[in-house]
Amino acid sequence: MPGLRAAGADRPAPEVRTVGPDGEVFLLLPADSPAVRAATHAQDDELAAVLEITDVAPVSVPDRIRGRAWISGWLTCVPGVAEPGRMLLRLEPGEVSVDDLWGADHVEPEAFATASADPLACHETELLQHLAAGHGDQVRGLGTLLGGGHDDGDYEQVTPLALDRFGLRVRFTRRHGGGSPADRSFDARFEFPQPVRDIAGLRAEMHRLFESAAS
């Protein structure tokens, strides 16, 4: 974003971030932040900007970064909306790219605008933390579904890493082997037979998954 490095803030973090109905990204920042000053100074000119989003696992695992996304486009001010001392900025996407646990890809702005949030997204943090703290033995037991004669003793750490309507991803860290814990880790994805639509559906699928591992 032009002008930000000179202002001494390379990556100002918005206080609030949300996506509008047409795919535009709204960012709430302090009125004196470098991003707001740059957008205000640009006025009618197009101010190119890149929003970088980092997805960090809400549980303790080797290599907690689950993915990153970049939204590049044009930044403008939306005056008269935010409370005093704040300014709402609007980022119109021109290009979107993602690099996460599923791989790297580009997303067309039209596809980004019409995408809907996963029904478990707002609950994922508490669900993963609950699984890690309250169902650690059952999560560890999922290793029996991997085949190849895996045993509980093979792993130093087994942690639920990601959860969505399609399934659960678990990170296994081998007890033996060279390198750091991250070098000894691998992910396993446990798919649900069909996408879940709510917490009740998730509870049923997790019960089925744990029963399958225990049998």
From TrEMBL:
SUPFAM superfamilies: FMN-binding split barrel
InterPro entries per UniProt: DUF2470 (IPR019595), Haem_oxidase_HugZ-like_sf (IPR037119)
Sequence ranges assigned to domain DUF2470 in this UniProt record: 126-207
Coiled coil feature spans: none
Pfam families named in the record: DUF2470
Superkingdom classification of source: Bacteria
Protein name: DUF2470 domain-containing protein
The organism's taxonomic lineage, starting at the top: Bacteria, Bacillati, Actinomycetota, Actinomycetes, Kitasatosporales
